[in-house]
Amino acid sequence: SYISFAGPLQGVSPLCSGESNGTIQIPVSGGTPSYTYYVNNVDYPNIASIQLPAGGYNVYVEDGNGCTTEELPVTIPPVDPVVANLVPGSKTNVTCPEGRDGSFAIKIAGGNGTYFYDLAGPVTRTNASAPDSLVVSNLPVGSYDITIRDQNDCEAQTLNIVVEGPAPLSI
Questions:
Q1: DSSP strand pairing (83-86 vs 102-109)
Q2: pTM
Q3: Model confidence over 35-73: pLDDT tens digits?
């Protein structure tokens, strides 16, 4: 039987924005094994070896007898980068010396699925769940580094936020 595509080609996004681990699902039927997959005229001996960045590609397959499928276009869709920003005006400084009422809010977008965060500073949190509008509260005075990532471990730029407070009382 002749070689053909057994269904539509489908591009699968890379795990993180800018990475080159996107794949293409290429269903093939007929022909004589073994198959060689061509993506933009570059040959791949097996489908698992195709690791590409987001973008448009032309694909065809050649069987063991040198017969080929038609060449078809396919797109590997991009992934939006994980972006985290301090919400303007959301930082609240500590009101009393030794207080723990500082806070700030972070708006998160992009990436894939659920978000998590790590907080480093006078208060630390590791692998904490983060909604797309995150409020970090009950903080004492100090400098905090917050790193947001998505379920694929794609990270946003680390933010540094300084929670300030009043000068200690002196008698």
A1: antiparallel
A2: 0.82
A3: 999 999 999 999 888 999 999 999 999 999 999 999 999
